[in-house]
Amino acid sequence: MTRRGTQVARLAAVGAAAGVLVAGLALPAVGGAGFGFVAAADGVNLEPADLVEPPPAEVTIMRDARGKEIARFYEEYRQVVGFDEIADVMKTAIVSIEDYRFYEHGAIDVEGTLRALAANLRAGKVSQGGSSITQQYVKQVLLNSAGSDEERSAAVEASYARKLSELRYAMGVEKKYTKDQILEKYLNIAYFGAGAYGVEAAAERFFGVKASELTLPQAATLAGAVQDPNATDPNLGRAQRERLRARRDVVLGRMAELGRITAAEAAKAQATALGYKGTKLPGGCESSKYPYFCLYVRHELLSDPAFGPTPEARLATLNRGGLTIRTTIDPAAQAAADRAIKKWVRPSDHAVAAEALIQPGTGAIRAMAASRRYGRGADRNEISYNVVADAAHGGGTGFQAGSTFKTFTLLAALKQGMKVDDGLKAGAGYRAPGYAAFRNCAGENVGDPTHTVTNDEGSPGWKTLRTGTWDSVNTFFMELEQRVGLCESVTMAESLGIRRADGKKLQEYETFTLGINEMDPVTVANAYAAIGARGRYCAPMAITRVTDGNGKTTRYRPKCRQVLDPAVADAASAVLSGVFTKGTMSGVGGIGRDAAGKTGTTDDYAAAWFAGFTPDLAGAVSVGDPRGSQRHKLVGVRLGGRYHGAVQGASVPGPIWRETMAAALRRVAPTPFTPMDQARFGGCSEFCRPGGGDPADQERRDRETPGTRDQSDPEDAPGR
C-alpha cells in the first residue's frame, strides 16, 4: 500500500472511531446548503498540488556611495536569512510548540489532523487546528500572495474545502523541499507581532539581536508569539506582554516535557524577565540621515518602468522586493554641506537654505542638504517636501534663480564668437527698443518697451563680458541678451538641463537672463557642473546599482552628452573665476583652488543664490521663504542669529557654498581649469570699446568720472 493509501486508511479508521457514520473516509464538505458528506476515499483528491511561492515581502535597503545603510523601505519588515543563520534553539523551540513530530511525519500529521477533525465534526465547524508546520507555511504563502481582500479571506477561511486545498499544497511542498528547507521558509515568512515578519526581523525588533544570537528564553518567546501575534504583541501594552510571557513559559515547559531542555533549564528561563526592547524599526526617508537625497532616490525608482509597468507595481517592488540600492551620495560631502548650512541658517528661521553638490562629468549627486529637517511640517523646524529638488522628485515650485541665469547668456555670447573683452555700453536703465527686440523660441515678439530694467545704483558706461559678469550688471545683460538673442539664451540653458522646478515650460521673456524662472538647487548645480566638465552635460544621477532579492545586479552608468564646445566652457570658466577675485564674491573669497561661479539675487530680494563649480565638484545654494518668497522677502531678517538688511547672493548663499566646497574637497587633489584659448577668446574684436585701449582700464576711468553711478546690481555688490 502506498504512503497516501496508508494515511487515508488510518484517517478512515480514526474517523470511524470518532463517530463518523460511513464506511471509508468521511469528510464534511461545506457548501451553500450546509454540511454534506463525501463517502469514498476516491472522492477526496489528496494528490500533491504545486504551490506558487512568490518571494515574501522583504525590506529594501538604500546605501550610500561607501555601502553604509541610509534608509529602508518595506511593506512588511522582513529580512530573509538562511537556515544556518538561525540559532538552533530557535528551531527547537518552534518545532516543540508548533509541530513536535515535524521531522517524523509527512505533509500531514495524521494523528494531529484526525484529533482536530474529530473535534471539528462534533462541533459542526472548524474549531481546532492540528496544522503541521508545512501546512502553516502554505497558509502564510497564500495569505502573503493574496492580491485582494477576498483572496486574503479565502486564505484563512474556516472551511474543509480550504483545509483540503491546504493539504494538497502541503504534500507538494514536502515533495519539493527537505524538512530543513521548509522550516527555514516558515521561520522567514511567519509574523511574530510588533510589525516584525520573519525570525530575523523579530529577533531585532524584540531583543536587538540577530536570529543567530537568540538565547533560550528569547527563542521560546518568539516561538510562543506565532500562535496569536496580535494578542501577544508586546508593543501594544502590559496586558499583551503578560500574555506573551505566559506563552513563553508554556513553550519552555513543552520543550522540557519533550526532553529538548532540562527541567532546570526551563525553570531558569521562566524566571527571567521578558526582555522586550522594542528596537525601533528603521525605514522611510523621514527617519533617514539624508532625507532629501532619500526622497530623490525614491522618486527615481517610482518613475522608472524598469521596476514595474505601473506606479503601483513600482511601489510594491520598492516596499516588498528586498532590493539593495547603492547610491551616489558621499557622506563627507554631505557632512560638509550640513555643517555650512547649519552655521548660516537655523531650522527655526523663516527662510530655508538648500544646497546640492554634483560631480562634473558624471552627474552624480554627492549631497543634498537643507536648513530644516524633513518631516510632516508640524512646526517651523520641519518642512514637508524636498526643498532641494524639483517637483518630479518630491519638491515644490522652487525659487527664482536670479542672476545665476546670466551665465547662460554669457555662454551664448561666447558660442557666437564674442571675446571676453568685447562689450557694449550699459545704461542706468534698460528698455527694449521695440516689441520685436526679443523673440521667444516660438518666434513670438515678447519685448516690452514699457518696462524698465534698472540697477538700484551704478554708473552708465562700457562693460565687457568679463566686467559685466563680475559686477553682475542687469542692464548690461539685457543689452547682451538682445544682441545674442533670447531664444539662444533659452536654448543654451535647456542644453545644460535647465527645467523649471514645477515642471512647467520655461518662461521666455526678455528678463529670462535675470533669472525669472523658479528653480531647484539640483538642477542649477547640475547645469554649472556641465561647465566644469568642459561642456559635457550629464543627467543628475543618484543610483549606481540595484541588486534584487534574487541577487541579480543592474548597474547604472552616467547619461552624458557633449553640449558645449570645450573651448567655450573654458572661456566661461575663466570669466566666472573672476567673480571670486574681482567681482561680487571678492569680499567672501575663494576656496584655495580653481573655482568659478555666479551670485544671484531676485528682484526685491525675494530669494538669493550662489552657483559655482570646480572641475571636481559643483554646487548650488538657494535661500528663500517657503511661505511665499514674493510675499516674504529677505529684507530685515535674521538668519543663523545674524541680522540682514537684505539677503544677497554673496551674503549667505556664497559663504555657505564656499565653506561647503572647501571642506568637501579637502582631501581631493585640485584639478585646474583648462586655460582659455587666448587666440580665440582673448582680447576683443568688433565689439571693442570705441577709442581702443585696455577695456578694464577704460571701465575703471569711467567709474572714477564724477557724476556717474555704479552700474552693478546692488544685490551682488562685492562683499555683500
Give a verbal description of the structure.
It is elongated, with a radius of gyration of 35 Å. By secondary structure, it is α+β, with helices and mostly antiparallel strands. The protein has a five-stranded mixed β-sheet with strand order 4-3-7-19-20. The chain has a five-stranded antiparallel β-sheet with strand order 9-8-24-23-22, with helices on both faces. A two-stranded antiparallel sheet has the order 1-2. The longest helix is centred in the middle third of the chain and has 20 residues, at 238-257. The N and C termini lie far apart (96 Å). It contains 23 helices and 26 strands. It has a domain at 82-271: Penicillin binding protein transpeptidase fold, CATH 1.10.3810.10. A hairpin with a 2-residue loop joins strand 5 and strand 6. Helix 1 runs parallel beside helix 3 (110-123).
